[in-house]
Amino acid sequence: DGGITQSPKYLFRKEGQNVTLSCEQNLNHDAMYWYRQDPGQGLRLIYYSQIVNDFQKGDIAEGYSVSREKKESFPLTVTSAQKNPTAFYLCASREVATKETQYFGPGTRLLVL
Amino acid sequence: AQSVAQPEDQVNVAEGNPLTVKCTYSVSGNPYLFWYVQYPNRGLQFLLKYITGDNLVKGSYGFEAEFNKSQTSFHLKKPSALVSDSALYFCAVRDGGGGRRALTFGSGTRLQVQP
Q1: Residue A10 and residue A22: Cα distance in Å, rounded?
Q2: Per the CB < 8 Å rule, is A58 touching B99?
Q3: What are phi and psi of B80, to 5 degrees?
Q4: pLDDT reported for residue A27
């Protein structure tokens, strides 16, 4: 899992609650990504960020929000608007300047109470 | 839009036998292709990638992949499977240039290596 940490490992959300998933990297990578993984499916892109203070919606951004105030941190908030949040969430980072490989953190499993 | 297909949900192979996990792709332009492996409740580990050059790409843990442009395939191979290779394998293609460079993943293939 390299130099990317995600916390917590498991997270429980109650109805109507916002929860925040942490992603930190010490690889000095510029780009960071959030993906969602559901059983039997590949990963789907939620949000991505190329540089600090900039981020873009991915393919399934509805019900999620992010911030990128520091290069090493890219937290994801799952809002109450996300009606089906139960999934495995994976954060990744990539060194820019034509480096293509993304490296992934260990993931956070979000469950709804 | 870019896409990848992994036609097998599961592949079973005996330890010591060669293994192949299949992947086909659809892209506009030159393909940037990747293989990742995932162990239960873990993140994805990078195995190898094809950007350009030799059609046979060597990666981590003895894995290799063969890029075939005419068949739009990028199959993952290993000459001799180990029980510890049992895991979920994902093929992916780069989706978008510039700063996005996200990955579009296949649905995954579960590899089961029997002792």
Answers
A1: 12
A2: no
A3: -145, 110
A4: 93
